[in-house]
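To close the chapter, one final illustration. This time we ask the reader to focus less on the individual chains and more on the assembly as a whole: which components sit near each other, and how the overall shape emerges from the parts.
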Amino acid sequence: MITYLIIGAFLLLFVTAALAPLESLNWWAGWSREGEKKGPAELSEAEATAGAEEEPDFYVIYLSGIGAISGDSFPEEEYPFLRGLEERLATAKIITDVYPYSVTNNGLTGQRQLAWLWRRIEKLRFKNPNSVLSLLVNLRNALQMLVSADRRYGPVYNLGIANEIYRVLREKGYRPEHKRPVILLGWSGGGQISIGAAAYLAALPSPLYVISLGGMLSDDPGLEKLTHLWHLYGVADPLQVLGGVLYAGRWPILPNSPWNQAMANGRIDIICLGAYTHNGKGNYFDMETKLPNDARGRTHGEKTLDTIVHILTDQKLLTPGGRAWAAAAMMQPQSAPGVTVSAVAPPGVGDPSI
Amino acid sequence: MLELTQSVFTYFDHLFQVIRYALTLDPRLYEYVATNPRSGWLVLGVVFLAGASVLLGQSVVLFVNRVRRGRFLFSLALNGVMYVISYFVWGVTIGVIGRLLFEFNPGTWAIVRMVGLSTAPLIFGFFILVPWLGPFIGRILNIWGFLILVSVVEFGFQVGLVGALVTVGLGWLAMMLLNNLVGKPIAALRNRIWQRVAGAAIDASAQDLLLQFSQSEHAPALLRENRP
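The assembled structure is written out below.
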């Protein structure tokens, strides 16, 4: 009996995995109803609404990890981090409403046959963030991440995501002719999808940067197109290591793979943040646990934010000690719950330890 | 009507049993298939299902070509038929080589039926769709099919492993020769049918088709507006 149950579970898992690419393939083939409403060729209504007001200095598109349920429903821990990011990057436009696990930006609780199930899981997760059922969300999204990294489906999947990113950018006022830099900030699975979408977003005249937070990155051809990638990782994070194990193109024996070529050309920087974990206490977003041996007594999440600021300052997207950070620190020193903004030393400025 | 329904159920019941025994390389099944000409229909079912399943596993090209649902199903059926034909030729080739090499001869038709059993693992060809793991699954299924083929030849001609491997190897060489001599017009005909059904070349990759698409007027805004 138990043997049959195990076989059944495996079969179910394999069938689910085999069906995972169908959402994006259906969209592409024009089979799905969503595809009919908002097919790959019909995007112009967003462009028409692009405002005429002054553009921000640059755009940051946040692509969440595999725990995301929709473009506005992330795991709780990410919200204080995102507020901290907005405070530090006041001259940028932070965009969080792209759902990277659907080619049509259709969240799990959107128009779907199983929306009722995902809504129930969302409620459960709100009450208990460690609910076992929420692993279903992770499984579903992890499969979509694998679809993005698969050379057979990636070209279609990543086009859909890139198209949605472009549509939202235009909605938020992005004008290609102004060439404002575009930064994709991808957490976990969002890191892989960022480098996948980069293959198409590189067609924009803007510089295109990717910052991966513990991303499970493959040797995606998009790496050949982006301007620069920073991969931030923690030594206690086994999941980001998987990318280097599962994808042969990241092994040193294949020097001509997109990953190894980008590494050789100096387009990838790998930055170790310390003993960060992927989930739980001491993760990239943890705004409570203090770092051991940190001179400024920062939390894990604060150091992640500071590192991002440091990178952007280094790229001259932020002015050292400029209005972006200073204004936020002076006006709202404690505006986000759980986020402590140090007013003593501007983060990332003149600090060799980032 | 009732009889017909009953026969259909019986057929599928037997079909699943044949698949199960073939997957476990069971010599009792080889015996049954070798001595029972009516088993040909069951083997035909196995080969057809394997062909359709493998195409489902490799159907990315159909999706990327934006093939309509009806054509999609027709393509699956067409691939099933193509599989049946190619395995028939493969079976005849092995049968002829075995007859030339070995004394024991179970008859070419019996060998053709038995060779068809080696496609049984490809019934799981659908799982080639699985992201990341799919191509690896495909290779495992091919190796599994190869093992069945070798054991079928061992049983069919009552030879040892080396004899069976030599027969399969020579069969493969003969198929290559046939492909080069008479295969080209057949392949051209197959490609023409395919192109008519799917609307694209059989060997076009997703990248090729997207590149083609990005240059058309129906391309997404991102590609249309930002061409280099």
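The radius of gyration of chain B is 20 Å. Chain B has a mean pLDDT of 85. With these observations in hand, you are ready for the problems at the end of the chapter.
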